[in-house]
Amino acid sequence: MKTPRLLLRFLTVGGLVLLLLAPLSMIRGTINERQVYRAQAVTRVTQSAAGAQRLVGLLRVVSWTDSQRVEFIDDKGNKQTRIDKTSDELIQTPLTLTLDGVLVPDTRHIGLHEVRVYEWRAKLMATFDDRVPQPAANVTREYATPYLVFGLADVRGLVGRPNLRIDGKSIKLQPGTRNLAQRFGGVHAPLAPILGTTVSGKRIELDFALAGTESLSIAPIADSNRIAMTSRWPHPLFGGRFLPRTRTVTDQGFTARWDISSLASDAQSQLRRGAGLTGASSLDSLQVDLVDPVNVYSQADRASKYGILFIVLTFVGFALFELIKRLPIHPLQYLLVGLALAIFFLLLLSLSEHIAFWQAYVASAIACIGLQGFYLSHVLHSRDRALAFAAMLTTLYGVLYGLLVSEDNALLMGSLLLFGILAAIMWITRKVDWYEFGTTLR
Following DSSP, what letter does each residue of 258-306 receive, concatenated? Predict the structure, then answer.
């Protein structure tokens, strides 16, 4: 009985499939390496220009020193008096904060890689309560000069000199955030000394331009926050803790508006607990990312995950030819065709760095299908059989492209494809006598 020959053939083909996992793994490693290079390009841009921006502001800082006369009994039992001094600081958040601006996108090229940058031209208006905390009746309080803080993740992004108006009067911004330097980068502006029970800076207006890379975040630290943003970038990604209340995204750009109350945001309490701009203690914020609609590396990586499926399906097609036509195919011929299938993904990666992804996909598919069609016309001893096999490969490449461009339906399409292929194989082989085939297999 020669049935073990059939089993040996299946084991040989299975071993070839496992062997071809090595080049597929190397190709995926190359894709990951190129993704690292792209991340390094972003890092180079942020080192020479401004990085991703996060904005916190405006904040008003009021600090003071309290003096209190205290009576005490000394070591000799005599009544004495001393002056105890304590210092404290209050970070005041706005009652209302309005931000309205235009996000102007641009592209920086680092070698083959494109990095999205932007310049946000915005107008900020904020209102504060003009009252300051008052001391107890037996306490004398001396206020330090209050100041405003405009917190930024990367102060290098400030373009030109922002125009700051405090209660209608123009004031120059100064570098640094003084007492908040360990928590915020940014700039500050001194206010008028406190006289009586009120503090200046009730109405603040700030016109500024802020440059950054790929991402912009805003912490809604006021009691009432109204933020509007427009841009001609047609592929925004809205994230953070708050999505826009209204948004419109078209091929010409996007418009988004947020209306956030302090009742819905934990930013104020996080600020009081000492949260900063970065790290695990960062403030709640809304975020807009300028994403690339077709990231060639993520697309190539997704495509490469289907590489083993391509190889298995092609080998199944070969096995059917052997079964139906009694046409022996050498394991080395299996291996060469499998390598041709694997090289498709490397071609796709390299071409997509220079031309549009769909163009790279079509060029790579035509090259690989043409090569295999030419080779199989000799392996299968028939041009018609080779054309039929090439048509099958064309269908597979077409289905794969559909999976890549339709992320929402990828699982459904893939499941239907596998079910259809399995059903076709079962239908074709429904009348095969496997015992008889095993005895006739050479």
Answer: EEEETTT--HHHHHHTT--SSSTTPPP-EEEEE--SS-HHHHHHHHHTT
**Structural domain range at position 387:** 3-39+297-440
Give 1's pLDDT tier (boundaries 50, 70, 90).
very low
Could you give the angle at which helices 331-352 and 357-379 cross, rounded to 10 degrees? Answer: 160
**Least confident window among 29-43, 84-98, 192-206:** 29-43
Q: Residue 279 has what pLDDT?
A: 45
Q: How far apart are CA 320 and CA 326, in angstroms?
A: 9
Q: Give the tokens for residue 330.
A: 């050498």
How much is the pLDDT for 231?
A: 94
Please state the domain count of the chain: 2
Q: How far apart are CA 84 and CA 123, in angstroms?
A: 45
Nearest to 303 by CA among 353, 344, 355: 344
Q: Do 226 and 308 fall within a single domain? A: no
Residues 240 and 257 in one domain: yes
pLDDT of 96: 94
Strands 224-231 and 96-110 turn out to be: parallel
- Peptide bond before 58: cis, by omega within 30 degrees of 0? yes
DSSP state of 246: E
